[in-house]
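Practice set, problem 2.
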Amino acid sequence: MSHKQSKHLGCEDPFGTCLPCQEKGHRHDMKQTTLIAHLSSTELFRRYRNCKNVQEARRWHILWLISTHMPVTTVAATTGMSRTWIWHICTRYNAMGPAGVRRQQTRKAGAQSLLSTAQFRQLQHAVAQPLPNSGRWTSQKVAAWIAQTTNRPHVATRTGWVYLCKCKEGTTTTTLLSQ
């Protein structure tokens, strides 16, 4: 074992970069990450296959592949995720166990809706009618309507899309896109 190997043995991240010394360009031979055995490989696979949330299922898939000793670069190519993101998922799983796989961001409990019930009904009524100039409601137009109604300087287009979908409840997304 060389001096360099003995000095830095066991201090690598999943990609072989030395974490404690942060030596530029210093890399280890090991390019594989290891998982703490919170769950067996079989259980990781079961959770991956049975998960209803697509994003969470992707994380379980990554963990299962890593648990089978697949190289990180192969896992990245298989899942379409970056090596850095895979490293973050593995690090969070190692630190928090299965709870670390779930989405960490949550909606604040009791957060108020942007529109009151009366304003939402007005929006539903407005969306049910064609616009005089262009005839179609878009997420940008809904966002502009919400901004004007709530006296806000700006409402995100994504928010407009969410409210447009709520107004057209029961209508599929592809129908909304084709209108």
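Problem 2, part (b): a different protein.
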Amino acid sequence: MKKGLALKPLSICVTAVLLTVCLAAHARCQEEEIGVVDMTKVIDLSKQGKKAMDEMAAKLKGAKKDLEKRESEIISLKGEIEKDAMTLPAEALAQKERQYQDKFIDYRRKLEEYQHQLSAKNEEINKRMLSLTNDVVDEIGSGRYLLIFEKTASGVLYNVDSIDLTDEVIERLNKK
């Protein structure tokens, strides 16, 4: 029985220390908050984001126009081959089919090239916007916030509106 009595003051001390630590942590959490920022909304609504998206749209428009022209040429050549298949000599038909295949291969290469360019441009825009946004988020967060998450990429499924800092980030970005 003496062992049980000796452990009782020790367990009371440990409990008291744990309670003090928990209360201190709780008080600290009351002072510092957690926030979220929706980067998609920042890109869509900030001046810098709109400018970046306009750049992307211009690049996409040029690529689309070029690809549509190439596609039209391929369709036209395919129509010629089908129309003239019975009347053209075998050698001329084979030459048109090679021409068709070359144009089709060139079209696919160009499509892949444009996809690569657009992907690189998108990555560049995201990096630029993240850099600009990080500066603003650092300003907002310093001293007040414990954590600030990117809303969609971090897997946040729900948050109260009061911790959403997106509008404040956009406002500060637009002032830069």
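Answer key, part (b): DSSP finds five helices and two strands in the chain. The radius of gyration is 31 Å.
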